[in-house]
Design brief:
heterodimer, A: 322 residues, mainly alpha, 13 helices, B: 313 residues, alpha/beta, Alpha-Beta Plaits, four-stranded antiparallel sheet, 13 strands
Chain lengths: 322, 313
Amino acid sequence: MSNNLRQGSLHIVNVSRIRKRGALSISEGRIRVMIKWFWSNLAAAALSPTLYLLSIGIGVGKLINTHSGGVDGVKYLTFLAPALLATAAIQNAMDEAVFPTLDGFKWSKSFFAMNATPISSSQIADGILIAALVRTFFSVTIYGCTIYFFGGFSSLRGWLAIPTALFAGAAFGAFILGIAAATNNDDSFFMILGRFVMMPLFLFSGTFYQLATMPFYMRWIGLGIAAATNNDDSFFMILGRFVMMPLFLFSGTFYQLATMPFYLRWIGWISPLWHATELSRYFTYGHRLSGVMVLVHAGFLIAMFIFGLHNARKQFTKRLSK
Amino acid sequence: MEDISQNPVLIQAKGLSKRYGEFVAVAGIDFEVKKGESFGFLGPNGAGKSTTMRIIAATLNRSSGEITILGKDPEKYGPEIKAHLGVVPQTDNLDNNLTVEENLFVYGRYFGLSKKFINSKIEELLDFAQLVEKRSVKVETLSGGMKRRLTIARALVSEPEILMLDEPTTGLDPQARHILWDRLFRLKEQGVTLLITTHYMDEAEQLCDRLMVMDKGSIMAEDSPAGLIKKYSTREVLEVRFGSDRNATIAPELQKLVERIEVLPDRILMYADDGEVILHLLKEKGMHPITSLVRRSSLEDVFLRLTGRTLID
């Protein structure tokens, strides 16, 4: 047995190949873990959209009946689809950037094991992000199919919401990756992220509709869920997927950005969700947008991606060489 | 065992230092490790062993001095050096989400190895680590000893030139330690270059051809375990106890009988080539210790001699 545990790394390890493909090896390992959770990932990808779309079917059906004519010249669901997809992409990219990073640095410390191999710290960051985007693409595609099933795409162009959403996921995922890498205290991190980042992003990005348009008998759902989930950190993942998101929907406190008081609009401006949604509405149904604004929206996401990835690589390198 | 003194030098350090602000973790040390050698850093916690290991592993930059691993500077050629190292860190950092087998597979992929190569390697490594029955089990259910063996197997997936083990048996029960020592000894027999840090003298004696005794970032001595004992201690040690009150008062009397004594809180160590003779002499002079023990000198005695302190304090 084991008589050929020979020392052959000089012959079998090809460093220049690792320099090129190291990040993909990291992604491969991550995806292997995701596959273990395939069915629950699939359920998460399909279930929360269904919840959204059903809630919108009820809440928005009433709105459309009352005002008859949709929003922005299209059916309300068509107006909403880009925002929903971008929201899902951002949420997915965030989960897959945050959890593996906290695990890798703090819980199992597996990043330190990766760092002992020829793969560089920057490649570890890249690999985690790539895997996060594979997962995001998977989820957003399933979501897109669900929207299609509910008749949310007015034409084939509607599918362009998927790459746009993925783009938003990449930007926000890269941004969050660097922050997660710099985070030592994970409990407060989740709290801050959930309460002060994700929530305002959804609320103030001109995504949904007003509570007043919901049937009165639906309003209690938001309040009831809010009371039941107060401060329960252990079920953060489930909360994020099945509670927090429906909470936003059923509480329905959403405005279009332009109807918001000026002093609150900045939250939308810094939100990748708003930029991605505007861009996506422009692509999918011809939402009126000047050429300059198209560039501004795309530029914002590109800048966020570049800054985010640069910072993530820096934080990974710093933490792994401490 | 073959003569390794003529083998090529794999690691060479000159004036190697690491400082964190005012604190000096490694204080300008020189050493050389040859191919096929089993080299140990022995010292208490905080001696600078792990810091030195991390500099060699190209995961920590030095503050000053020179070091080459396989002839390369780790600050310039990190990936080129890491490609040929197998690293077993002080605390296991296996991927808890994956099974035993998958941990080996994924790690092999980080070295850019082909699936086919890794799959055949896994069989060999599971056998080596005595984990064949546990192959499909999630890592978190393994015992401490099994995790340790898996971490070592993982480090071997790329057939490294140098296997680095930081405190390989700390926290393991005696049986698990012996199984691990047996595995490491097999690697040594196969000519794998081993770099080991430990604060266990028995481990150092079992596994290392050559030892560097470290304390407070400096090298106190360097030789084979037997050479160190010969140089810094006597062949035997007589341990006597007179009770905690009398130990200190009787010490000057005992000092007259042997070349050197060490007064510890609970006992007195008397260094002599023949402990029985000294014990006999004590009794002749009417000094009757409560307990007495004659044993061979160990690295613990060497460390005590060099630093005035015990290894584990």
